[in-house]
Amino acid sequence: MFKDRSAFLLVIVFTILIACRQKENNATQSVIKKDTPVVKMDDVNPFAPIDISPMDMSYYPVNFPVLKMTGEATGSPVMRVIYSRPHRQGRAIFGKLLKFGEPWRLGANEATEIDFFKDVTIQNTKIHAGRYIIYCIPFPDKWTIVLNSNIFAWGLKIDSAKDIHRFEIPVTKTTSNIEYFTMIFEKANAGAELIMTWDDVMARLPIKFTENNN
Amino acid sequence: MKRSGLICFFFILFFSVSRAQTSEDHVPAVDQSPMDMSYYPDNYPILKVQDKTTIAPVARIIYSRPHLNGRVIVGGLLQYGKLWRMGANEATEIEFFREVSISGKKIPKGRYTLYAIVNPDKWTIILNKETDSWGAFLYDEKKDIVHADVPVQQSSEYAEALSITFEKSTTGCNLALVWDKIKISLPIAFK
What we know:
The complex is a heterodimer.
Chain A: H1 2-29, E1 55-60, H2 64-69, E2 79-84, E3 113-116, E4 120-122, E5 125-127, E6 130-138, E7 142-148, E8 163-188, E9 191-209
Antiparallel strand pairs in A: 1-2, 2-3, 3-6, 4-5, 4-9, 6-7, 7-8, 8-9
Chain B: H1 2-22, E1 35-40, H2 44-49, E2 59-64, E3 83-84, E4 93-96, E5 100-102, E6 105-107, E7 110-118, E8 122-128, E9 144-168, E10 172-189
Antiparallel strand pairs in B: 1-2, 2-4, 3-7, 4-7, 5-6, 7-8, 8-9, 9-10
């Protein structure tokens, strides 16, 4: 009886070990060519393969589409960001994968897009309603956040001649490591903050609303 | 002895897995049906940064991509005659950067929500004016812009995840939806 059970457990352990090995092998073999050099998850779809760094969208008011569905919000949202979410996959990010002082696209694949549906104010500068590319120049203690007009572009090639606004914001260390790069809005005094966090770094861009649009 | 070693191993395994799951619980998790974006012209952002295009894009779709996960779509996941949100999570959004026409109807530039009514031989594709919503829960017929009936085709290849892309056509482009072994092609004219 005891012998049987331990044999059974051994089989399970070996299955897990083999499964883990398999995953590692895949990781080294199938590497996407055109972009981020990380594990490719889906080879099956011949039309539009699933991205390694999946796209995501954050609204302000937070979860606007859900609030709208439940009747807690009406009209138009204030802003939204559309970005792709690279994941760490064991890599060191800031100062290594992303060099300090060099532009970073704040995402992956398509350039990260921020849409303001109303005029807002960032660090006393009026930002007109519209669509912008948002990117970052990381430093150890601060980030430069750039709004750029080269919309519908791919993130790897940033055209800094089309920069419109630049803002400097401090960074803080997080207590735990964030696996997937995350951008989300959070309600704040007189507006909201765009929170950007990855690995052990977090930055907040305060955005003020001019009138009664919060 | 051997047995307690194995139990130890499982404990370690369990703890490492549960730690990995809780380390980012205060930030949103990655969606099961990841969002994706397709442009017309196809791959427009890449063409743009390679200086292979100077004109503006014509259309863009933002949708979330449910997976089959062993399920069948026809008559299973998608009920015949019922409204389907053509995606997952946030309502599927199609944007035209210039005026186009669908089923002979002029569609002004702007953002729209896409829905479909699924039937065995044809789908009805609906463009609706209510944007920034979730799924099909807010669907209001009065805000429809156009209804277009398109035939169901068999796809030559199988798609595990819902795929929506644009394909060039003689009069403009087609919105091409492929999932499982089904293909739907909605003609969009802009020439």
